[in-house]
Design goal:
single chain, alpha/beta, four-stranded antiparallel sheet, 10 helices, 30% helix, 22% strand, globular
Length: 337
């Protein structure tokens, strides 16, 4: 396995999140997920809607209590944090929510929304300093101090999401979970928000977990990327490797669906159209979760779920296409889509 001496700010180990729907039915939203994020990088988490991306982000921040596994933040298990330690964790780790329309209290002004975190983590900050801090935050996200007196309904979708970003930045965090921060916005605004996040990261050395189903935007902002399918990670790689040589058939299908503006180039590349239905996360069949839709599925794929393995330096996938029956790796030159 490739060694890397960079500092890990987050290390997720076997994270599992189950929800009990009733006495008999259990929905496994996140299933034994493991990955890490280095300080100062952006780790993109992609997949179809309902695959467990948001649940993973919320479990990391203990908005949901994980059913199993560990979330280590700077080497300390988040589940073991006491009340005072949890407050310090909330100071260091924040979240930008998906929907800027429902994540902001409509009864509060922008000043009040941003000052909530300041009141909790900096209770002795003088009112003037707090006001100056809010004005600076609004300017950093592309607004001005006049927006502080407005209510959320007086702002556009892009402006509301900038308020959500300012709220997350108010307590000076090091790590931010960006939960599909552009999916509810117009296409013309999405690039502005992503470029703003990149700018803020360069200025403050922030670390991001960027959750999205938009592979084009994830490619633009991420250093490394994890691909999720039905609660499991099926591939993890750096940005360039994933888009130039996807290893998992599901990743290959996702990338083939990215719109290409050049019609001549588009016609030369075949789009992979998946067949079959997505299994129910309540009653999951044995083996690989993708086997029922995979054009390369073998008998062993339907018997035991493949584990995430390093196939190339820094490039991991959970797929039997790259393994012999004894678990050893095949000659990779013979495995191509």
């Amino acid at each position: 396995m490739q060694s890397d001496n960079r500092e890990k700010i987050l290390d997720v180990q076997g994270l599992t999140q189950r929800f009990h729907l009733n006495r008999r039915q259990v929905l496994t939203a996140v299933d034994n997920v493991s990955f890490h994020i280095f300080k100062g990088e952006t780790f993109g988490l992609v997949g179809e809607s309902g695959c467990g991306k948001t649940t993973t982000g919320r479990s990391i921040l203990r908005i949901y209590e994980p059913s199993e596994g560990k979330v280590l933040y700077k080497g300390q298990d988040v589940a073991d944090l006491k009340k005072a330690e949890m407050k310090a964790f909330r100071h260091s780790a924040q979240m930008i929510f998906q929907d800027p329309y429902s994540s902001l209290d409509p009864r509060m002004t922008v000043d009040d929304i941003i000052s909530e975190g300041l009141n909790v983590h900096f209770p002795h900050m003088p009112s003037k300093d707090k006001h100056d801090r809010i004005s600076q935050l609004l300017m950093r996200v592309g607004l001005n101090s006049e927006h502080g007196a407005r209510f959320p309904h007086e702002l556009s979708g892009g402006q509301r999401q900038r308020i959500g970003i300012a709220r997350a930045l108010a307590v000076e965090p090091e790590f931010i979970v960006c939960d599909e921060p552009i999916s509810a916005l117009d296409v013309s605004i999405q690039a502005q928000i992503v470029n703003l996040l990149i700018k803020l990261q360069r200025e403050s050395g922030l670390t991001y977990l960027f959750i999205s189903h938009d592979l084009s935007m994830v490619k633009h902002i991420s250093d490394r990327i994890g691909v999720m399918y039905l609660g499991s990670l099926v591939e993890v790689s750096d940005n360039k490797q994933l888009y130039t040589r996807p290893l998992h058939p599901y990743t290959h299908a996702l990338i083939s669906a990215i719109p290409i503006p050049d019609p001549d180039k588009k016609s030369m590349e075949a789009r992979v159209e998946l067949q079959g239905e997505v299994p129910s996360p309540i009653n999951m069949p044995p083996g690989c979760k993708f086997a029922g839709r995979c054009p390369y599925a073998m008998d062993r794929c339907r018997k035991a779920e493949p584990k995430l393995k390093e196939i190339e330096p820094g490039h991991f996938t959970a797929c039997y296409l790259y393994e012999n029956e004894d678990g050893s790796l095949k000659d990779q030159s013979a495995v191509m889509f």
